[in-house]
Amino acid sequence: MKQLTGKTAIITGANSGIGLEAAKAFAERGAHVIMAVRNTRKGDAARDLIIDTNKDALVTVMKLDLADLASVRVFAESFKSQHKSLDLLINNAGVMTPPYSKTKDGFEMQFGSNHLGHFALTGLLLPLLKNTAESRVVSLSSLAHKGASIDFDNLDGAKGYKAMRFYGQSKLANLLFAQELDKRFKQNDLNSLSLACHPGISATNLFKFGKRDAPKLMKTLMHNFLQPQEMGALPTVYAATDLRLIGGEYIGPDGKGQRKGYPTLDTPHAAAGDEAVSRKLWEVSEQLTGVKFDFNEPVIQ
Length: 301
Fold this sequence. Notes:
By secondary structure, the protein is an alpha/beta fold. The protein contains nine helices and eight strands. This is NAD(P)-dependent dehydrogenase (Short-subunit alcohol dehydrogenase family).
């Protein structure tokens, strides 16, 4: 895995869980890590945690709320005003199985935050990605994409909502987006790469019980059957840094059922293989977010 000295990496949701572990790994390899977080107080605490163990770490906290497209635009413009290149964009942040709710822009929360927010962010940062040799976009999917589908007639959940089904839909959308983005990079002769990964089943803060801590029995089960978040972050680090990858790959743990283990190439479920659905999702996402990817725009000088 390559060193990242002099590289710039944005990680969404970097204040906890897999995002935090990835931030630690990238900072250790010399990258300037941008922790793009909704709660900057928690982001500052996470940055301090990294610096406490690595005094040479270069870490910056910036506010980003993926459930608010105005916030996504402000973040992108602020970043572009300070940087002319972007080596790594890690689309990591996510919400999992909340009660039915909507984003600031009226999208179902999981589809809106997990997919549309990252879609818009990537599109707005595309000029910098194109301006950077061998830049990479890594989008986090999930085992939950298996058997999921994109219900274009009910994306907002108005015709019925089941939390886990909509989570699976959002994670399938992440995977379809990653694959389609890499195809378009290659069609336009760009040397940027787009990859997808998943952490298996990791003990992150997605596994919460409202405001209560997990019961003791549940903690024991989590310890026995879920891998620690440090391991869960390895597919992200692998996808971002392994020199053998060519774009379009899906990375996950190598253990039984891809639930635990060390990172390796994984095979997406057949649900992720429908190119017509992938293209339609891209078109719908551009319409909903108002963000269009201009692959032909000249790079920044």
